[in-house]
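Tutorial handout. Part one gives the primary structure; part two gives the three-dimensional structure as tokens.
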Amino acid sequence: MKTQVKPEMGYLETCLFVEEEIRRRGGSPAFPTGIGVNHVTAHYAPQDDDMSVFKESDLIKIDFGVHIDGYVTDTAVSITFNPDYRLLLEATERALGAAIETARREMRTGEIGREIYREAIRFGFKTITNLTGHTLDRYVVHAGKSIPNLYVPGTQSLSKGDVFAIEPFITDGSAAGYVVDSPSETIFSLVARKKTGVADLDKFADRIWDERKTLPFTPRWYSKELGRGKVNDILRQLMKRHIMRSYPTLVEASGSPVAQFEHTMAIDEGGLVVLT
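Part two.
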């Protein structure tokens, strides 16, 4: 992605490239490719009518994952053409490196967060306090353990067999340092399997289970076949019945730009293995 993304490249074009490349290499998208530009931090998946393009001034985050038979990896990269953001990107990438060097079996996840936080403030930045890394499980992107981006006492420890993603989110030192929901909702997942008695709703929910289980998806993947209006209506009705859930797009509360780098890793007999 570092070599592919250029100014004037479209958000949607970027997502299609990532997802097609994942399939070409033998995997499937673990979740919709996320595009976060400047203060838009997470959970934005462009739809078919998105005409937005990257600008020279932008800080761009591309968050994507791969699954094979439900086994998931999650990774992200930040890209910029704007020299004003290069130090922020360097600090974020260094924070991820420091966290990876620290992570080991029986370590509490809050200690990893301490290293991320230290690296951020060393450069004069701050971490996003309400976003975390996470363990992964089969067909589950966010499993039981969280890996904070600052020191938190009393957290769980990593264990042999854990697969987890570390993802520093770092922003300006003067920023609010946390994210809030925006009205945009472009990512969804199945949370319950129960019949509604409405043919269209049950057929769509069954299809999601067959194709995705509980992995997230985006309406774009189905709107060409079914029509965007119909997909959106089905999703509204399924959410009302608590069969589907949405993931609102997250934005930095004060409008400050956010950088993100992420790797997935595992702890096995020999120690830490970086998978992405």
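Part three, for discussion. The chain has six helices and 15 strands. The longest strand covers residues 179-190.
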